[in-house]
Amino acid sequence: MAGIRQFDESAALERALEVFWQKGYGPTSMQDLAEATGVQRGSLYNAYGDKESLFLHVYNQYKTAYLQDLRTALAQPRLDDSLRAFFDFCINSMTAGTPTRGCMTTKTATDIQSSGENIQAAIKSMADEVEQALTERLSTADALAQLELQPAEAARLLATFTRGLVFMERVYQDPARLKATAGSLIKVVVRA
């Protein structure tokens, strides 16, 4: 029947996300996506257009879930616990999988083949929303009394630091090291 998807869309999108996450945008082909999803290339093209459109679709779903989980982590009552939960969430996300999958956003941002305007806008939107979530948490009364920096400055520093964690994860693949380093930054940002 025309116009009706003949496949389990949520399962196919989840598998497509995993392929993009593991391989990166550029190295992923529509054939890779067809094999992973069990959906023929023609059906993928009919349903989503091209590879970029499919990527943007799954990335938007990823972003929504990621930001929801990030905000949950930041919802801890004590500021230092909130920031530890934030970093634990980020580190657990990038170290999941075998081999570890790294950070989807950073992997895409550094991929020369993903330099298209729409993909770059999606990545920038994600970075902005992470920074905004941090700024909101750091703007609460308890946080303001403990911060060494203004909320927006601290948020930018923390968000930027997570990109360095991604690099260090790729080099050392040691979550304990990443968490210890994040703990050191928290001590710099939050007054004892």
CATH architecture: Orthogonal Bundle
Question: How can the largest sheet be summarized?
Answer: none
Q: In the CATH hierarchy, what is the superfamily? A: Tetracycline Repressor, domain 2
Portion of residues in beta strands equals under 5%
- Number of self-contained structural domains: 1
List the total number of helices: 10
Computed structural class: mainly alpha
Which shape, going by the Cα principal axes? Answer: elongated
Compressed to H and E, one letter per element, the order equals HHHHHHHHHH
Integer-rounded radius of gyration: 18 Å
The CATH C-level name is Mainly Alpha
> Would you tell me the overall average pLDDT?
94
Structure write-up:
With 192 residues, this protein is an all-alpha fold. The protein has one domain: Tetracycline Repressor, domain 2, CATH 1.10.357.10. Helix content is 73%, strand content 0%. It contains 10 helices and no strands. It starts with 8 loop residues before the first helix and ends with a helix.
State the main characteristics.
mainly alpha, Tetracycline Repressor, domain 2, 10 helices, 192 residues
Please summarize what this structure is.
This protein has a single domain, classed as Orthogonal Bundle (Tetracycline Repressor, domain 2). The protein has helices spanning 9-23, 30-37, 41-48, 51-74, 79-95, 104-109, 117-138, 141-144, 151-172, 175-189.
Helix and strand arrangement:
Blueprint: H1 9-23, H2 30-37, H3 41-48, H4 51-74, H5 79-95, H6 104-109, H7 117-138, H8 141-144, H9 151-172, H10 175-189
Helix pairs in contact: 1-2, 1-4, 4-5, 4-7, 5-9, 5-10, 7-9, 9-10
